[in-house]
Amino acid sequence: DAAEKEAAVTKYFAEDLAASLALAEKSIPAGPGPFLVGSKVSYADLVFYMFLASPGGFHDNAEGAKAAFQGCPKIKAAMEAVDKIPELQGWIATRKDTMF
After folding, report:
1. How many CB atoms lie within 10 A of CB 59?
2. Share of the chain above pLDDT 70, in %
């Protein structure tokens, strides 16, 4: 039923994803920031970005995904830093629209 699906999706973004990201946040070591590990962008940053914040990324509900990490300062800082990488933004703007 459509109402059940909508309720499950809403719960996923508001509760389940947010809780999982809070756990991930706790496992991120202290560092120079803003990236997740080390002082430079890493594969971890790119994977989190494509999963949570990239336009046309993993989630159809990009705003729900972004809202889920707002309570996670390290993840939020990393997503904002990755989003400012000009080469990545150029690639996103020109990549083919595929499921991969």
Report:
1. 20
2. 97
